[in-house]
């Protein structure tokens, strides 16, 4: 597609140390008072899932340079600061064929979207104008908003401690620990709430395009660096953590940088490229096993969160529905886990070049034991 041109050469990055992350616990237990439910619970029905959805290519684009970027302010509440003159130039450059990451003609996309922030909407508008389509429809989705900073709102991005505290929660969520809080945030209090918010926006974009699609289709969404990178790393089947941490040293994503994913809400998502660097579809053995364990851990956390939300709402029907859905989701994750691990191991053996199947199996067993 037009938005995926030849690779750009990555800038050299400083040495970095990747901290080991322990995959502890398989879920979150919510301690809550018992709420009476009218009548007995219905029988729990387990449904089979058919993976037959059409794939979408989604280009997630960070906004152009904003006044907050220039002043070094963490601003995560809409409407936020506008873009600068340089930011407007960056947005217009997205329509230039000389840009290695230039976007396709607006008419190519099934939908063009932006968050509630001024900076994303201005970036989209300036690109559309430069592409000769100033009147092209632009849909606004609050789910695409920046990852909320909580108590860090308005603090300096140049303060390394503040920047680190802002990323503690998101980094934990990427490794399956959705329960870790985002300090002081009522918008994104934890990974479950953020997953629901941004994931619902992506699903809405998908549904809008899939309505009339007989085959694959594409959409573009203008969002923010932290929300784009966090949700993508939480959800894709082939997360490239080395590439992520290298980009983290440079601010995660540059202004108008892009992350491209492909897939659908039913079968899941694959990372295609990160800021112009293509990503292998097969994540490799260790990353594949990590994703299998991550998916197993996430299911009970999401179920527990939705049940807790229903309990707080106090509607017995909502509580019953949350229990039903949560049970089905956790059971599906537990049932799918053994086969997912087997598929990951056999896939790694098939892709291992120059080594025997026994060596590959030994590596797999060592990874599981470690």
Automatic annotation (TrEMBL):
Its name, as the record gives it, is: Phosphoglycerate mutase
Query: Which GO molecular function annotations are given, in alphabetical order?
Result: fructose-2,6-bisphosphate 2-phosphatase activity
Q: Name one GO biological process term.
A: regulation of pentose-phosphate shunt
Mind listing the UniProt keywords for this protein, alphabetically? Hydrolase
- Say which species the protein is native to: Mycolicibacter algericus (Mycobacterium algericum)
What domain of life?
Answer: Bacteria
Q: Which SUPFAM superfamilies match?
A: Phosphoglycerate mutase-like
Under PANTHER family, the record lists: FRUCTOSE-2,6-BISPHOSPHATASE TIGAR
* Any GO CC annotation of this UniProt entry: cytosol
Q: Which PROSITE patterns does the entry link to? A: PG_MUTASE
